[in-house]
Amino acid sequence: MHWSSLKDKIESQLKMTSSNSGWLGKRQPEDFEVIEVPKYEPTGDGQHIWFEIKKKQISTMGVAKRLSEITGVKRRDIGFSGRKDVQAVTQQWFSAPLEAEDDLKRLEDFIHSSGTSKSKEN
């Protein structure tokens, strides 16, 4: 089969599928949810605080940058495990040095209004 006719056939199938009420494509961030599951639970010991943020339409780097600005901690000291989809509702774990704990506690209302937050020291 020639490439252009294959492309036309695929596009035709996609149009038929997207007009079907059963189409599962992402239309809104709520159509795609990501919940990060850590490999292990924080122990409560160590030099970092861990917290979970539920975010929507903001990148992982955007959150890390904002946390850095708010806490005064260098961006490179804000930890996370992989980048999550911007066009989604995601729950993601972050970490910061204990020195940021007071600032993060003051932000608890902000974090809760953006989603969920669970803090644990590690």
What does this structure look like?
The protein is α+β, with helices and mostly antiparallel strands. Helices cover 34% and strands 21% of the residues. The chain is built from four helices and five strands. Strands 1, 2, 3, 4 and 5 form a five-stranded mixed beta sheet that branches. The protein starts with a helix and ends with a strand.
Shape: globular
Number of helical stretches of at least 4 residues: 4
**What is the percent of helical residues?**
25-40%
Structural class assignment: alpha+beta
- Low confidence ranges: 16-21, 115-121
Radius of gyration: 20 Å
Order of helices and strands: HEEHEEHHE
Q: How much is the average pLDDT?
A: 75
How would you sum up the major sheet?
5 strands, mixed
| Tally of DSSP β-strands | 5
Span of the ends, CA to CA:
58 Å
Beta-strand fraction estimate: 15-25%
Descriptive terms for the model:
122 residues; alpha+beta; 4 helices; 5 strands
Topology:
Layout: H1 3-19, E1 33-35, E2 48-56, H2 60-71, E3 79-80, E4 89-97, H3 101-106, H4 108-114, E5 119-121
Parallel strand pairs: 1-4
Antiparallel strand pairs: 2-4, 2-5, 3-4
Briefly say what this structure is.
Helices cover 34% and strands 21% of the residues.
